[in-house]
Amino acid sequence: MYPIIHTSVLAPTITRLVVRAPYIARKRKAGNFVMVRVDDHGERIPLTLADSDPEGGTITLIIQAVGKTTRLLCSKNAGEFLLDVVGPLGTPTPIGLHGTVVCIGGGVGTAELYPIARALKEGGNTIRTIIGARSRDLVILEEEMRACSDDVFITTDDGSYGRKGFVTDQLRDFLAGPAPVHAVYAIGPLPMMKAVASVTRPSGIATLVSLNTIMVDGTGMCGGCRVTVGGQMRFACVDGPEFDAHQVDFDELMMRNRTYLEFERTADERLHRCRLTGEVRSA
Asked: pTM to 2 decimals?
């Protein structure tokens, strides 16, 4: 059992959990993730480690409530427990000295991007960050990203904060400007990462994306996280989660990610929130 030490709401559908997990906190590196199970009847889901405190023995998870399990996680309070937290898993993000790196976070992907941007900055790189969201209330970790970036640009789909438009609009401006861009790290929805790859491909700029595809065990045994990279089958959980964006078959990946939509919708409809206590549980 893993006790929840602190919870906070970052946005209407996004919650931060600080969980006591001493071993994971000591071993965690940028790009690692954990497999989490809320209770005996729950599924396992992958969550990126947004931060850790090795001395305090805690890890930070940032979750967007989009389905049954993530809604249950976001309903948890300090003092409650998670049944299983397994990790750190995955291959740590390769942190090299590139020069100027553009770090792009879309939606809750900003939480996954944060430890990578921080590690890249500590590695001596110049960090130019783009944070994208549908609207102002869904922009997260702005101050944290400013602390590890040389400059930060915000884009929102509706123009309620920062620049109206998409992260690729700001990226194109960077590429057209006088200052060179040596690498791009992008994390967010699959269509966004595909679009970023399309923008950087003509210039041949090294571009990495993080693929949190369907995972069951996180060890490569189930095969649920198969992705095609450079024409070869890879497993996101053990070979990734970061891959060369220019080699990823995004169309196939998006099709596979829709495989269980109907099952997820059915499971989500069975959730019940108690009117007296606010507790969320399966009906």
From this structure: 0.86
